[in-house]
Amino acid sequence: MRSKTRWLVPVALMAALAPAASAFQAAVAESKSWSNVMYLGGVAGVRGKSLDWDNKLTISKEKIAFSGKKVAFEVETSAVRRLDYTGHRHLNDGAAASGFVAAGLLGALVGSSAKSTDHYLEVTYVMADGATGGFLLRLHKDNQQQIIDAMHAATGLEK
Amino acid sequence: MTIRLLAVLSAITCLCGPAFAAAQEPVDCGPKGDKHEVIKHKGERPMPAPSAGRSMIVLVVGGSFYKSYQQKLAVNGEWKAVMNESQYSYFELEPGLQKLCWAVRTGKRDDNFLLLTTKPGETYFIRGTVAKGISEIDPAEGRKLVQKMTYVTFEAKDEK
Asked: I want to staple B50 with a disulfide (CB 3.0 to 4.6 A). Which of A30, A40, B20, B56 is the partner?
């Protein structure tokens, strides 16, 4: 009788903890993180920009969190009101020079017409006092679509 | 023949170089064709507090060797400050989200953009340089820098 009771305690404990554990797992699964993101300012009370790629952006249903070497902030996802993407297409800096080094004038000619796109995402949100705030991110070509999709999914804002 | 070919290729390369593709910037600067004149106010170094319900931006320009070039700051697509090296200026704004664009001849593009959420009654110090663009600095540092600068304003220059 005593040994049966001994088994009941951990089983009951596991049963009690199971919903909490699955909720935690779901929250972790819903939260996604990326590096290769730049911050170009905007969040009230956060001074400075982070213009190297070595930063971390985390998006979940609860919050959007950014952390870099000198800048870190969190914004509640439910406060986001607008997402604006800008793709800035321009001639590739230095491609003409690289082309010249590699293949002379013909290389420079080819290089000077090479283009690349910079990806920016502006996030507008409502602050606790009801005023409008926002911030600007530069995204990497390899993660920009994933981040934009995740932002729309988490905020519920349509594209 | 070879010289002619080289000359043609060089000309094409030079012509293609600065021709940027039509591009949308993440932050708009002021109108491109606008010309401005910088007006120096020697001996003055004003630094007023913002009016009730407004925000103040103080722009300090220094730290480069490009003394002859005009450097301009636009906020939300409108020119708000024009100056040369070792000068400062200030202006008031409605509080809220401000999109700053720094127009200089060199520097990386991302350095020249800055978003800033301003609050009423607050003063924000922005430092601009040719090489490193614009960034918000500590107010104490900003006030210290202003002491070494000449106060300037600007006006639109008539087209001739």
From this structure: B56
